[in-house]
């Protein structure tokens, strides 16, 4: 049988690291939103995004939602290492959450482009991160069906 | 509980990540010394573009970049405040052209050249309104759009004097370690404002 390009174990490790990267980014940006401190950014878009009301949902900063999503993904990818049963059972959840994450980052990227008129570098990196996680988990799910 | 090798590895990575985050949080939460206060003469040197009343007790100085989107967002409010409190407030515009904006120095030079013909603030409004249209051609045509003497405009925007003025403003901004654009000083003290409402509130307090 032809060996799969990425083993299940490797895929889960990559998903775990990407989720941790997501947590780190979301944590940094969220604290800047809450403390109202400037965000270290490659462009001036981060400040434009931070100061725009469209970056808050019911008063909650958008990156806080990312923080919760990525934290759940860290927990799920971690729990997958504890038993073979959970390894299989939790994969559809990861696909679902990252799928929801892709919809969320798509909406926010659209908001940045057409409502705020500027892009926050960290948001763009986080969006790419979420899309990568979704693609990896979906690929893994297809291989396991 | 029997942990697999993979679980132990993940726990190690999580602990390492938490340690890094805690270290970063400790470093970031260190108190920063307050920004120094400057005199009016230091913040508004001779030749600075100002409007309002020079003898007013309140003075607001903005360090701004014509290619900065946040500066554009603040510019309308600044214009309104400067007009509303023109008898009680002196407003000064200083240049803080950021390196990542390719046209910010060219825009600053265009505004300075318009200022030589008494139209600095008209040029400022025009530049912010057209921020997304900046190009070399745009700045060549800006003189005519602002109904300036275009020959003089071209001469002034390329002059050493104009360049020096922008460089001097940028030097001040770098030396004072301004956090970004726009940065405001109200009565010599650096303002910490995150949105236009906070700027309005601070100015209204100052002109009472």
Tell me the radius of gyration of chain B: 22 Å
SSE class of chain A? mainly alpha
- Give a short account of the largest sheet of chain B: 5 strands, mixed
Structural class of chain B: alpha+beta
Order of helices and strands of chain B: HHEEHEHHHHHEEH
Helix content of chain B: 40-55%
Description:
The complex is a heterodimer of chains A (about 140) and B (about 210). The mean pLDDT of chain A is about 90. Chain A contains 6 helices and 2 strands, in the order ααββαααα. Chain A has helices at about 10-35, 45-50, 60-80, 85-90, 90-115, 120-145, and strands at about 55, 60. Chain A has a two-stranded antiparallel ribbon. Chain A is mostly helical and about 140 residues long. In chain A, a hairpin with a 2-residue loop joins strand 1 and strand 2. Chain B is an alpha+beta fold. Chain B has a 5-stranded mixed β-sheet with strand order 1-3-2-4-5. Chain B is globular and about 85 Å long. The model of chain B has no long low-confidence stretch (mean pLDDT about 95). The interface of A and B includes residues 24, 43, 51, 77 and 117 of A.
């Amino acid at each position: 049988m032809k060996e799969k390009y990425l083993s299940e174990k490797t895929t889960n490790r990559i998903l775990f690291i990407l989720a941790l990267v997501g947590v780190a980014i979301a944590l940094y940006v969220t604290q800047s939103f809450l403390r109202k401190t400037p965000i270290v950014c490659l462009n001036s878009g981060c400040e434009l995004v931070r100061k725009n009301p469209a970056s808050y949902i019911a008063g909650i900063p958008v990156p806080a939602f990312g923080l919760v999503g990525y934290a759940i993904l860290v927990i799920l990818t971690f729990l997958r290492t504890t038993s073979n049963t959970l390894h299989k059972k939790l994969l559809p959840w990861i696909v679902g959450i990252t799928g929801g994450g892709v919809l969320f980052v798509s909406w926010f990227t659209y908001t940045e482009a057409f409502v705020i008129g500027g892009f926050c570098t960290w948001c763009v990196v986080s969006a790419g991160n979420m899309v990568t996680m979704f693609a990896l988990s979906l690929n893994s799910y297809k291989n396991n069906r | 509980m029997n942990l697999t090798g993979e679980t132990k590895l993940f726990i190690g990575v999580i602990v390492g990540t938490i340690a890094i985050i805690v270290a970063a949080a400790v470093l970031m939460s260190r108190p920063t010394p307050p920004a120094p206060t400057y005199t009016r003469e230091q913040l508004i040197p001779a030749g600075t573009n100002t409007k309002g009343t020079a003898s007013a007790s309140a003075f607001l100085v903005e360090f701004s970049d014509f290619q900065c989107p946040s500066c554009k967002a603040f510019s309308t409010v600044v214009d309104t405040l400067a007009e509303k409190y023109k008898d009680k407030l002196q407003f000064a515009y200083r240049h803080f052209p950021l390196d990542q904006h390719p046209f910010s120095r060219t825009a600053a030079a265009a505004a300075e050249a318009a200022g030589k013909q008494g139209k600095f603030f008209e040029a400022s409004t025009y530049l912010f309104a057209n921020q997304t249209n900046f190009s070399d051609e745009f700045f060549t045509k800006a003189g005519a759009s602002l109904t300036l003497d275009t020959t003089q405009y071209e001469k002034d925007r390329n002059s050493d004097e104009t360049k020096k003025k922008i460089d001097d403003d940028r030097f001040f901004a770098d030396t004072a370690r301004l956090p970004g654009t726009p940065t405001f000083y109200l009565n010599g003290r650096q303002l910490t404002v995150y949105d236009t409402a906070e700027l309005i509130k601070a100015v209204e307090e100052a002109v009472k």
